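Fill-in record for Alkaline phosphatase.
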Amino acid sequence: MKIGKLIFALAFLMLFADASMAAKWKAKHVVLIGLDGWGAYSVNKADMPNVKKLMADGSYTLKKRSVLPSSSAVNWASMYMGAGPELHGYTEWGSQTPELPSRVLDEDGIFPTVFGLLRRSDPKAEIGCICEWAGIRYVCDTLALNYDKHVTEKPQSPATTKYAVEYIKQSRPNLVNIVFDEPDHTGHSAGHDTPEYYAKLKELDGYIGQIVEAVKEAGMLNETIFIVTADHGGIKKGHGGKTMEEMETAFIISGKGIKKGYEFQESMMQFDCASTIAYIFGLKQPQVWIGRPMIQVFK
């Protein structure tokens, strides 16, 4: 009899803990979509109806700044790690390990990421990452993931979308990071701010629409926050420098509890993305993080 009561009490405590955890969350699901090399200068000119619907239904800035250098690994790391390269130590386009010693390491042996924070806060959370560029896997803490997919099929973007749609419908992730390696390649080959670049953005917008539709079909829409952003922009056929075309990227956030049609004016840096996601999930920031949540976008 005592054993039965003990089991009942433990079950009650577990249910209470789950309910308490969920009560801290502003949404049950976050879908983070990254477009590599998507400069904010292009947003108003681009034919991207799905992205612009997210903007109209949510909040956004076209003034989020990259960290220097304005290139990939250092900025994806900052986006996930809530700090700049001076602290996390990833300083170059293709950093796979920190060139500077990370100021602190977490239990997974990496500078604290938002993925690791969520995993330790809720061990049962479903967390996934789907990416086209293998470099993402060096900075997102794969040990914290339930689902880790590096897409190698060609063409990549349709395959990435397929995997994302399947994962969302089957697993209903709490946090999923979906990173396309475009329009960066088009920017390098045809050039930024070219007809080819805008054609690629229109194509990518269609994939984003499919991901939004998958969230609807999974029955998650009312409990989801979408974030669409980028690591850096570009100028001519390159990036990495200090022009605004390279430095400024869009940050679009839309969904449950987000203000509609709100272009916020407060300054935002790359590392504020991690802090904003942490705020959604009620996570306590590590002392070493310097990011700030964009609390002004919440109702």
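KEY FINDING: The radius of gyration is 19 Å.
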